[in-house]
Amino acid sequence: MPIKTTFIYPGIAGRGFNSLKQGMDAGWISHGLASLSAAAKGQGFEVDLIDLRALSGWDQFREVLAERDPDVIGVTMMSVDYNPAREAIAIAKAVKPEVVTIIGGPHVTIALEDSLRMPNVDYLVTQEGEVTFPKLLRAIEEGHAPPERVLRGETPDLDVIPFADRDLFLDEWRKWGYDLDSPEVPFADELPAPFVTIIAGRGCIYNCAFCKPGEDYLFGKRTRRRSVANVIAELEMLRERYHFASFMFHDDCLTEDREWVTAFPEAYKAQGYAEPFFCQSRADIIVKHEDMVARMADAGLRGYFIGFESGNDRVLKFIRKGTTVTQNHQAAHICRKHGISVWANYMMGLPTETKEEVMDTVRLMKEIDPDYYSPAFFTPHPGTDLYDYAVEHDLSRITDYDSYRRNPTEPKIKGQDYEFLKWAMAESQRRKPLNAFKRWGHHQWQRARRITPAKVLRKLGLAGAT
Ligand code: B12
């Protein structure tokens, strides 16, 4: 008997139910689930999705799940998603006791012991799921489900697996009446709708203490990057299907592989693309490879996410960032020179960080004057060296999975003065008056250069005429 699988995306820890499309974290697909969906559909399985962000609450979830009547449910989870994932699985088993429940995702891999304690879970798949998940579905369908509960995901060849199935999300969102002018929610002036996200590889070669070794458990120590040709082929599909006008790479640090970021802009231009895009980079790479910045800017790069993290060298060393304050300044300057917007990621309230050191970060932000501020209260995540440090020194104030969330509202580390940090965070985003004035001019310029001939034609209904 063919089986039917329903995926559940539990991402409501930040903004709750009814939050779809409110901001980037509520308006993006999960590439993990979209990729599993493509793999399962490729093997002939029927799959659909329940995205908790689109629902009004647990009562509605219960109803929808009963209607969908799946044989298997597959749930993804980061650590922050634990509570809604547990609740969804409990309801699924209550609605249909024979449903097979499978969980996977960063938390399952990075905190397996903890995940094993989650009630009502039949299978836990660690690492990547594209090969193992369809195999498990087949075994369940054929009536010889494996006896072991934990399955280690086989590492897929990223150039062979099918492209992420965006329609898993888009079809579901449409059912709930969401307007889909843009497949995903754009988040910066430089990135017009229709906007999509893409991932060119998995893993990261750097060793920052707030992330590693956790992510190595998930993807391995080395980065595996898809071929440029494979990424261009996905862009072709995205152009044809969703007519994207801009996109962003989710890769942790796309620019770590200089060969790749040399070949990609060439191929992108050769294929006739000029659509703007953002990606993640690092201050040291930008400083050492300005030629790379120039090449990427020429092809359409409009913004770098940069983990500046701190304006203090001791703190940068403590978190093993591998960059310096000087590089932070220089990187911002280089971006400005090449017309690249700066999305500044930085943290406050790290273990051992003093108020003076926090003020160094406030000063750094005022000096580099980023286009976008993305501050966070440092949050210790399981599986990372800084998490272990916080536990060993009894510094963690995290009492529930919900506290791993993004919004920087609650105290995370003992000994930090969060009233001061809130003030410092606000102050770090207050531009110097002269910068505020210059910025006004910069935005007018950005807006003007977004009006490309292709867009004018599209507005006039003559798209495709070129
Ligand atoms: C894009 C991204 C985001 C987007 C999320 C978009 C979305 N809707 O998914 C945004 C910017 C919103 C985001 C936010 C956060 N993120 Co984030 N994010 C990422 C990033 C860079 C890429 C995710 C991705 O698509 N990966 C590629 C896919 C293919 O991998 P995957 O999702 O892991 O899925 C594979 C496997 O895990 C497995 N799998 C996954 N689910 C399932 C389910 C089943 C049933 C099975 C069998 C297998 C399986 O198979 C998949 C395919 O191989 C990762 C780092 C990374 N490189 O992965 C961090 C990462 C996932 N984020 C992380 C964190 C910490 C956060 C925040 C909590 C940060 C913060 N403090 O603000 C917030 C939380 C937001 C919230 N929900 O409130 C951590 C998670 C660590 C953890 N222990 O959970 C990661 C790993 C980064 C890191 N190294 O620290 N994030």
Characterize this entry briefly:
The chain has 466 residues and is an alpha/beta fold. It has helices at residues 31-42, 58-68, 82-95, 106-110, 112-116, 132-141, 166-175, 214-219, 228-242, 258-270, 283-288, 290-299, 313-318, 325-337, 355-368, 385-392, 418-428, 433-450, 453-459; strands at residues 4-9, 46-51, 72-76, 100-104, 123-126, 150-152, 195-198, 201-202, 224-225, 246-249, 277-281, 301-309, 341-348, 372-377.
Describe the secondary-structure layout.
Elements: E1 4-9, H1 31-42, E2 46-51, H2 58-68, E3 72-76, H3 82-95, E4 100-104, H4 106-110, H5 112-116, E5 123-126, H6 132-141, E6 150-152, H7 166-175, E7 195-198, E8 201-202, H8 214-219, E9 224-225, H9 228-242, E10 246-249, H10 258-270, E11 277-281, H11 283-288, H12 290-299, E12 301-309, H13 313-318, H14 325-337, E13 341-348, H15 355-368, E14 372-377, H16 385-392, H17 418-428, H18 433-450, H19 453-459
Parallel strand pairs: 1-2, 1-3, 3-4, 4-5, 5-6, 7-10, 10-11, 11-12, 12-13, 13-14
Antiparallel strand pairs: 8-9
Helix pairs in contact: 1-7, 2-3, 10-12, 15-17
This protein binds cobalamin (B12).
What does this structure look like?
The chain is of the alpha/beta class. Helix content is 42%, strand content 15%. It contains 19 helices and 14 strands. The strands form 3 sheets. It has a 6-stranded parallel sheet, sandwiched between helices. Helix 15 links the parallel strand 13 (341-348) and strand 14. The mean pLDDT is 94. Cobalamin binds next to helix 1, strand 3, strand 4, helix 4 and helix 8.
